[in-house]
Specification:
Elements (H helix, E strand, L loop, with lengths): L1 H14 L16 H5 L13 H4 L10 E12 L3 E5 L4 E2 L4 E2 L2 E4 L3 E15 L2 E8 L3 E5 L14 E16 L4 E23 L7 E27 L2 E8 L2 E13 L17 H5 L4 E11 L1 E11 L2 E11 L5 E6 L9 E4 L5 E11 L4 E10 L17 E12 L2 E18 L14 E18 L1
Antiparallel strand pairs: 1-6, 1-23, 2-5, 2-23, 3-4, 6-7, 7-9, 8-9, 9-10, 10-11, 11-12, 11-13, 12-15, 13-14, 14-17, 15-16, 16-19, 17-18, 19-20, 20-21, 21-22, 22-23
């Protein structure tokens, strides 16, 4: 079938796409119409992206519907001002205040949906979207003040979500689906030791790159109530995912062969002598726990005006730690154990649509997304903060075609965190004391066709 083939092609394209941060590393950018209304769409759920927002809504759609689209994200590099364990001035014995800005990054987050109404009371479909993603990169992995913690990180996921929906009666509709997730993670950092005094105060030992992928299964369900012609109430839930990454590739390059510091019989030895050369390869495993999500929305529809407000829960308590088990590890390359202890958060979303003419509608929206990251465990891996999201959009219908576009500005609130941990040489501590600031711009476009 041509529709199925088209979706498969888009799935392949998704495998090469990288995504950027949202609240935590969740990405609700699954539809342009929903974005234009602040992602307050759980009760409306009246286009094919309902598969993501509330699967019960697809029973409202007549015939067969295909919708494809993408969101372009311009992530302006966050700026940090403060101290880290690598800003110690050995001459004065104090930590110098430094500023560093992440690289500006560009990402594309795609989506695709197909639905079919098989009978007046039954519909089914499939959606492909990117529910979680993360991208951060620091300017110079040789000199960054965060290089011992992270120099680059990418997390990309996509979900294939077959869905069914049943109209129980004129008031209640139900929907449910199965989720298959594929995910890929990359992490880069620099091994650093402190030897005491300049010019060998800080020595880069190696450049580390970890790259792995895995799969996970989940489910989702939703309900839609239409108690009157002017009111709609929607609720949805998506299960957590456990993304197991096994036998990921670990590469060490540029291993230092000039500075001997590792004690031992006949030593001291250089890092290159310990690893047997200037490069070293091994394997690693980890598990990434993606949180469950839930939403509750109420919409008011009257003539040409639609208003909706949603509460959206993300149950981040499942993300307690990040543990990387490295095969054939050594004291210079130990297993990584990073406590996270993220907290559950509730986002508020609101939006309005006004249909100026039958084919043309304009939209505005607002969303408040609180950060799930506690100050005690916040790291340069994801320097997160509460964010205020401002949206606007428009939609146009022409015969069987629809086109929806939206713009979103993300205002990340400045956040000051003091969690720097300093340790005795030759080890280097973690965390930072300072303030982060940043913002982002997003543009979404969807094109739909009804058969």
């Amino acid at each position: 079938m041509k529709i199925a083939k088209g979706l498969i092609v888009l799935m392949v394209l998704m495998l090469t796409a990288t995504s950027a941060t949202a609240a935590g590393f969740r990405l609700p950018e699954a539809g342009a119409k929903a974005m234009g209304m602040g992602f307050a769409f759980t009760a409306q759920a009246d286009d094919p992206s309902a598969i993501y927002f509330n699967p019960a809504g697809i029973v409202q759609l007549e015939g067969q519907n295909l919708m494809v689209g993408a969101t372009y994200i311009r992530e302006n590099g966050a700026t940090f001002t403060g101290t880290t364990p690598l800003t110690l001035n050995t001459g004065t014995g104090v930590f110098d205040v430094r500023s560093e800005t992440q690289k500006d990054l560009d990402f594309v987050v795609p989506n695709a949906y197909w639905t079919r109404k098989a009978s007046p009371n039954f519909a089914y479909g499939v959606g492909i979207f990117v529910p979680f993603g993360l991208g951060q990169e620091y300017e110079n992995r040789q000199t960054s003040i965060f290089r011992n913690q992270v120099t680059k990180v990418e997390i990309m996921t996509f979900v294939v979500n077959p869905t069914v929906a049943w109209k129980v009666n004129d008031v209640l509709s139900l929907g449910a689906g199965i989720d298959f997730m594929y995910g890929k993670a990359k992490l880069s950092q620099t091994g650093v030791v402190r030897l005491g005094a300049a010019p060998l105060d800080q020595v880069n030992l190696f450049q580390l790159d970890l790259d792995g992928d895995g799969t996970a299964w989940g489910y989702n369900f939703g309900a839609l109530l239409v108690p009157s012609k002017n009111w709609k109430i929607g609720a949805s839930y998506r299960s957590p995912f456990r993304l197991d990454i096994k036998d990921g590739d670990v590469e060490l390059r540029d291993i230092n062969g000039t500075v001997p510091f590792v004690p031992g019989p006949g030593g001291p030895f250089t890092a290159a002598q310990v690893f047997g050369g200037t490069s070293f390869d091994t394997k690693a495993s980890t598990s990434l726990r993606m949180p469950a999500t839930a939403a509750l929305g109420i919409a008011y529809v009257r003539d040409r005006l639609t208003l909706e407000a949603d509460l959206d829960w993300t149950f981040w308590h499942s993300f307690k730690s990040l543990i990387i088990d490295i095969r054939n590890n050594t004291p210079l390359l130990p297993d990584a154990v990073r406590p996270e202890n993220w907290k559950d958060v509730v986002a508020f979303r609101a939006g309005a649509e006004y249909r100026i003419t039958d084919p043309f509608a304009i939209r505005v929206g607002f969303a408040y997304d609180p950060t799930p990251v506690p100050a005690s465990t916040m790291s340069p891996l994801l320097p997160d903060a509460d964010r205020l999201n401002y949206m606007a959009g428009a939609g146009y219908k022409y015969k069987n075609w629809t086109i929806d576009a939206a713009y979103m500005y993300v205002d990340k609130k400045d956040r000051t965190v003091n969690n720097q941990q300093n340790v005795a040489a030759p080890s280097i501590g973690s965390g930072f004391n300072g303030t982060w600031s940043g913002d982002a711009h997003l543009v979404a476009l969807d094109i739909g066709y009804r058969f």
